[in-house]
Write a structure and sequence with these properties.
Largest sheet: 11 strands, mixed
Distance between the termini: 113 Å
Structural class: alpha+beta
Shape: elongated
Oligomer: single chain
Helix content: 10-25%
Length: 484
């Protein structure tokens, strides 16, 4: 059947318009209005265009134009340098088929907020699980403030993706802040307030995810041959967010070539049964993310797991995992750990108190990344223990005691000693000399001393800035016999 002439002309016009639209130069959605780019860095911008087209990328901060060419598969990439912090700026991307302008760009520091549900938990909380103390921060959100957010939607893939499933950079409005990661936002809010330059936050989190899901296939194949990897065409997964590579492919790989200042990380609950394996996986994951975000010394600041019953408050699986997290401080360069032994909840794995986690991550970044020294922000970490059989006391010394451990002049709860048969006994303890703890052993020959070493515990030991000491277990060094 022949179409009427007017309808045929209209249809042809629409088809031509659609063809032009599809051919216009496109940019990955990680580059959008309101974005923050890392200052003094080389950024790789990428997108799609008609194969063979020459692409021009012009940056307003220096008026320079860099060029690229669309490959046979339509992809293109261009690299340009960013100045010191400032803005707003524009970037214009054009080819013979069209032009796109990205506006209201700020240059500053960009941080990635990664992990599982305790990082994904928004400022307004989960259903029936609130976040304490965030309402004022939500209602005070100001779009004029130089703090921008990119909330990446959940996604997964068996093969690496070049662009995320969605998301766009937004200004700081109450509606945007309400839905953003609570830990991530609290962190970025304090960083922006203190350093007073533009800050961009990228939320890259997925509830119930294992660390293996955030790692690329090549790294797992090379370092962990016993870990089963999904096939490219696989569609069914027994544990989606526990399946290796799936989240890395869809939520991390799209950011390749996008420099950032650092990563804050809250994850581990899904890996808690296997602390020894986690100690092997975490250093490899950090290296792989450093490659993605083009910084071999990229800072990586993480949260030690909070108190939670995990089915049994007296069990040790979370305790063993926290010990592994503390051990990682001495295994991986450019990392630091925020302790939240005073902010957990025995019932909720998503503890309502997120302010301590976010702020302590910010304290670490301000200290280690921005060089704002003066406060004792690093948690005390027990490093050695010895035994004096004359008075049945154990001494424990700490890294990062700051200006002294507190409280003083009172007994501390949560201390225990262990005998050679594995029997556990409660013990009295006090701080001594500001830099250590004395533990009175109720048994004659203890082999191990512990603090807060259960799934559920309440921090009783802090430094002078009220940063909780990391819970621990330590072998007790025995005094050596005197030589004749």
């Amino acid at each position: 059947m022949n179409l009427p002439a007017k309808l045929s002309i209209a249809a042809a016009t629409l088809l031509a318009s659609a063809s032009v639209s599809q051919a216009e130069v496109k940019v990955s959605p990680i580059f959008s209005d309101n974005m923050v780019l890392q200052q003094q860095a080389t950024v790789t911008m990428h997108g799609k265009a008609t194969p063979g087209n020459n692409i021009k990328v012009k940056t307003s901060w220096n008026g320079k134009t860099v060029q690229a060419r669309a490959e046979a598969d339509s992809t293109w990439s261009a690299r340009f340098d960013t100045p010191s912090h400032g803005g707003p700026y524009t970037i214009t991307i054009s080819d013979r088929d069209g032009k796109e302008t990205i506006e209201n760009i700020l240059i500053g520091d960009v941080w990635v907020c990664g992990g599982q549900s305790n990082m994904e938990m928004s400022m307004s909380g989960f259903s029936g699980q609130p976040v304490e103390g965030t309402l004022d921060m939500i209602v005070k959100a100001d779009p004029k403030r130089q703090l921008r957010l990119f909330q990446q939607p959940r996604d997964y893939s068996t093969t690496p993706k070049e662009t995320p499933a969605g998301g766009t950079w937004v200004e700081q409005t109450p509606a945007a802040v309400r839905e953003f990661s609570a830990v991530g936002y609290i962190f970025g809010d304090l960083i922006n307030e203190v350093i007073d330059i533009p800050v961009g936050l990228i939320q890259c989190a997925y509830s119930d995810s294992k660390i293996e899901a955030w790692m690329p296939r090549e790294a797992l194949e090379a370092n962990f041959p016993d870990i089963a990897l999904p096939t490219a065409g696989q569609t069914e997964f027994g544990w989606l967010t526990g399946t290796p590579t799936l989240l890395y492919n869809a939520m991390v790989n799209p950011w390749k070539g996008f420099p950032v200042k650092g990563v804050v990380w809250y994850q581990g609950e899904a890996n808690n049964p296997y602390p020894d394996l986690y100690k092997q996986l975490f250093p490899v994951m950090v290296k792989e993310w450093q490659k993605v975000f083009v910084n071999d010394s990229l800072p990586f600041y993480y949260v030690q797991l909070a108190s939670f019953n995990a089915g049994d408050c007296e069990a040790l699986n979370y305790a063993e995992f926290r010990q592994a997290q503390a051990d990682l401080l001495y295994m991986v360069p450019n990392v630091a750990m925020a302790t939240i032994g005073d902010a957990g909840d025995p019932v909720f794995i998503h503890a309502p108190r997120k302010l301590p986690a976010g702020r302590r991550l910010a304290y670490l970044a301000l200290d280690k990344t921005y060089g704002r020294e003066g406060a004792d922000v690093r948690p005390p970490i027990a490093r050695a223990a010895g035994y004096n059989p004359n008075d049945s006391t154990i001494w424990v010394t700490f890294d990062n005691p700051g200006r002294g451990l507190i409280p003083t002049q009172c007994y501390l709860d949560e201390f225990e000693v262990v005998d050679a048969d594995g029997n556990v006994y409660e013990a009295k303890a006090k701080t001594y000399g500001g830099n250590g703890v004395t533990v009175w052993s109720p048994i004659a020959d203890p082999v191990e001393v512990r603090y807060g070493f259960h799934n559920c515990f309440e921090a009783t030991l802090f430094n002078n800035m009220r940063i909780p000491a990391s819970p621990f277990k330590l072998k007790i060094a025995k005094p050596q016999p005197k030589k004749d």
